[in-house]
Amino acid sequence: MSGFQFLHRQVDAAPLALYRFLMGLLMAAEGFGAIMTGWVKANYVDVPFNFTFIGFEFLNVLIGPQAYVIYFLLGVAGLCIALGYRYRIAVAVYTILWAVVYFGQKTSYNNHYYLLLLVLILLNVIPAHVNRSVDVKQGRVSNADTVPFYAVWSIKFLLLIVYVYAAFAKVYPDWLDGTTVTGFLAHKADSGWAKELFTNRSFILMISYGGILFDLLVIPALWYKRTRKVAFIISIFFHLFNSIVFRIGIFPYMMLITSVLYFEPKTIRKLFFKGKPLPQPATPWISPRPVLTNGFLAAFMVIMLILPLRPWYFPGSSNWTEEGHRMSWRMMLRAKSGHITYTITAPTLDEKIMWNPQDHLPKKMARKVPTRPDMIWQYAQILREDFAKQGHDVEIYANVWVSLNGRPMARLIDRDVDLANTPWNYFSHNPWVLQHPENI
């Protein structure tokens, strides 16, 4: 364990206790809010099925009113995490349920869904409930004034990975010349000052290059004491702008909450805990299984460093092919639109069937399917199964045209490949996904 001893040196538990409380409230808001805003209804009740992650199709059992129960339990578990009440059970329940809803639908995929799952995995290992919690007050765990360094470091380092990869992902032509940001802001520039500002070339380039610099520097700046306050103030404006203009869910608030882990513990105590200093001598929390903890954290961080490299493993641009795009912190990099028509044939059919998903799917699904090769393939499998129930062994071909960041339409899928009888390659390029003609 000698090489990992720094992970177990004791640090003040106050920032972690505050983080647990704020994140728990945000998790509760995510659960209850999804019900109250109609998100659950739109994505789990008023749909015929969900596009799950490939291999998780069994999670379509969530379709229907039972989804309300899942999200209500998420809200309750979030409150328990915030209060530190039955913390270990609450965080385990939230992790399992969140994994179910994360892998259970990707039509409304958002990077914060993935990030929250990763944070939850860490929270199952971190002793975030040993200070200022109901569990302490009710005697389920002993109070600890300090916790091992890894309890705070692991979350902070995860955020560093997220932001650095997000910065490097933006270094590509469409982001650097403002094309991507122009496309996103165009939908927000309705009239008046917003239109004048959001169509201003200088403002667009400021957002483009400012986004790269922010992602690359904000975590080191928060880590460094002399730049911490300035970085936090900039973070507030940056994340509130993204939240208001782009409406990207709880992601900005997760980032702001995590900022508390970078501040000096005495600052946290002064602002949030009535200025109570760290007791002397402080009562530490000692990891009961340090070797297992070290092994888990090492494996976790290695995976976090490797997974975002996938887009460079697959040929072409993942902004076009989508291969390796998820779980790689490639945030707000492309805007795509397209149309698709399936051709369905079988010896037992009188004629070819031209199948337009827009006539059969909810609007959001129909809009997303043409631009996502995995969803194109999945829908072909669903159609194959439906026709098989009617006694038809079909072949299904897809005619798909897509526009990337306002470019002219280009063909995304090889129209001569029978998708109904083509397997999905999990770990290598699917050759029927065509490269963009501009090789971007």
Overall shape: it is globular
Order of helices and strands: EHHHHHHEHHHHHHHHHHHEEHHEE
Structural class: alpha+beta
- Low confidence ranges: none
Largest sheet, strands/sense/barrel: 4 strands, antiparallel
Q: How do the helices and strands line up, and which of them pair or pack?
A:
Layout: E1 10-12, H1 14-36, H2 39-45, H3 66-83, H4 87-104, H5 111-123, H6 134-137, E2 146-148, H7 150-169, H8 173-176, H9 179-186, H10 192-198, H11 201-223, H12 225-246, H13 251-258, H14 265-272, H15 290-306, H16 310-313, H17 318-321, E3 336-345, E4 353-355, H18 363-368, H19 373-389, E5 395-404, E6 410-411
Antiparallel strand pairs: 1-2, 3-4, 3-5, 5-6
Helix pairs in contact: 1-3, 1-13, 3-4, 4-5, 7-11, 7-15, 9-11, 11-12, 12-13
Please, could you describe this protein's structure?
The chain is α+β, with helices and mostly antiparallel strands. It folds into two domains: 7-312, no CATH class; 335-421, no CATH class. It is built from 19 helices and six strands. It has helices spanning 14-36, 39-45, 66-83, 87-104, 111-123, 134-137, 150-169, 173-176, 179-186, 192-198, 201-223, 225-246, 251-258, 265-272, 290-306, 310-313, 318-321, 363-368, 373-389; strands at residues 10-12, 146-148, 336-345, 353-355, 395-404, 410-411. A four-stranded antiparallel sheet has the order 4-3-5-6. Strands 1-2 form a two-stranded antiparallel sheet. α3 runs antiparallel to α4 (87-104). The longest helix has 23 residues, at 14-36. The protein is globular and about 85 Å long. The model has no long low-confidence stretch (mean pLDDT 94).
